[in-house]
């Protein structure tokens, strides 16, 4: 797919604006495991994911993490251009969870178009509203749902993303997604194992009873 | 103050747009304690607070609450017009914490202007970014901060809003702000009382040692 078809607001821009984007457009490859931190990236620009997977997360002073959302093929990352919005008062970090190919629309070019074009500004509004909704969903999960439900939901999500019930993932990584401690995840997974729902081995969690995880998640 | 001076984007609109807003503008008074729920209000419009205080919160199925932010004089509530953004996928409720005078710009009028005017659309972006930042701040509080710090911060905030150290507030209300249970708040406040930091009486919390609360909050 080419950039023009992938970028949703393309047709609503005029020729001059389209040229300004194409002239400044950057393509970039991120190796799996690459981390981008706010100070380096908050003025990078809009990231449009050609293929791959990004995890957007927050970090505490003490190194704890929680995933706030993930981005997949054709998703757009707005917070990597957060310096163009004065009212964004928080910092996030981004990790490439898979090898990722990106188009980058640099902040300066995008900001200038957003200031001229109501269509681009409203598109940006919808992008931000979508991410805001992701975070509100997460807030409700954290506030009202017990951890067994959140771990079940996470394992099911992983299985769906990877297309397999054999997940190569450590307890530490699960803890970092869910904003808790490794020990807590280990305890929960051992409980699931004792119930015959999963099987644990070094660096892997194998889902044996998907339906049971679905039941816990919905309970 | 008149509406024209209070509405930040006013001068960037053209005459026709200004007239469209003034023709549709509504003023409304909310009595302290009035609750607005999403189904009734998500298409109300932008609320501009002439004077008063609103609390925006989320509600669980089981009736638990957590305050996501508060709005004061000259603040603008965007989520009361959330139906104009397709990507807003969550519901909030609003409570007038004091008698509140509002201007309401109905959703239909505002949406039409946002579609024409890049200035209005970008202003909406900044509004949403500010609320998104409030929620991210809250998320970090919940994830990384212990409850003693959050209760201390809440009592100090209340004292600052009300301009007094004698807070007429129940343990239940504090619990609803912070998304926890009344019993948990009662236990925490009794601990603060045993340390001589506050004094508890029926329906009131009296702050005796403000500096101690500040120390706990920052610890």
**Total domain units of chain A:** 2
Q: Indicate the CATH topology of the largest domain in chain A.
A: Jelly Rolls
Oligomeric status: homodimer
What's the story with the biggest beta sheet of chain A? 4 strands, antiparallel
> What is the helix fraction of residues of chain A, given as a range?
40-55%
What is the end-to-end distance of chain A? 41 Å
- Please state the second-level CATH architecture of the largest domain in chain A: Sandwich
CATH class category label of the largest domain in chain A: Mainly Beta
Structure description:
The structure is a homodimer of 219-residue chains. By secondary structure, chain A is α+β, with helices and mostly antiparallel strands. Chain A has two domains: 3-143, Jelly Rolls, CATH 2.60.120; 145-218, Winged helix-like DNA-binding domain superfamily/Winged helix DNA-binding domain (Arc Repressor Mutant, subunit A, Orthogonal Bundle). Chain A contains nine helices and eleven strands. The first copy, chain A, has a four-stranded antiparallel β-sheet with strand order 1-8-3-6. The first copy, chain A, has a four-stranded antiparallel β-sheet with strand order 2-7-4-5. In chain A, helix 7 packs across helix 8. Chain A is elongated, with a radius of gyration of 19 Å. The termini of chain A are far apart. The model of chain A has no long low-confidence stretch (mean pLDDT 94). The A-B interface holds A 58, 60-62, 64, 66, 68, 85-90, 114-118, 120-122, 124-133, 135-140, 142-144, 179 and B 58, 60-62, 64, 66, 68, 85-90, 114-118, 120-122, 124-133, 135-140, 142-144, 179.
